[in-house]
Amino acid sequence: MLALHPSYRITSKPSDRIRCVVGLSGPYDFYPFDGKISRRTFGGVIDPQDTQPVQHVTNAAPSMLLGTGDKDRLVYPRNTVALSNLLRLAGVQVDEIHYSELGHAQTLLALSRPGRHVAPVLSDVAAFLALHLA
Q: How far is 34 from 84, CA to CA, in rounded Å?
């Protein structure tokens, strides 16, 4: 949301722009609010669509790496697919990676020393950042 929603931009100086984004197991397209957490968190907002990152994609978005676990049942992989598709349609460079054996928490746990053997999340993130922050 910080990279997409214009209300969250704190400056318009080019040197302060977000250069790239890494999103892992992110909730990007979760309206209507059908889970306890989303209803509790967003159920009372005036404009529910405004809470959805997919509603704020423009061609000014930074390049993104979006990774998801295909076994994620908390934030379904369709969130990553939806945002990736819209970014591509807007002409934004996006790397979409699906980790077939991972669930929601495992995409983050795979960044840790004990979890690195389950999926190449750390090396994928490191390669993306090296390319975009060089």
A: 22
The domain of 27 spans 6-133
DSSP 67: E
Give the rounded percent of residues in the chain with a pLDDT score beyond 90: 85
Which of these, 3, 23, 13, 16, lies nearest to 90 by C-alpha position?
A: 3
pTM of model > 0.90: yes
Helix ranges, 1-120 (H): 36-42, 78-89, 104-109
Q: Which pair of structure tokens corresponds to residue 72?
A: 């994620």
- In sequence order, the β-bridge partners of residue 64 are 21, 94
DSSP secondary structure code for residue 100 in this structure = T
Q: Which residue has the tokens 């061609």?
A: 59
Domains identified in the chain, total number: 1
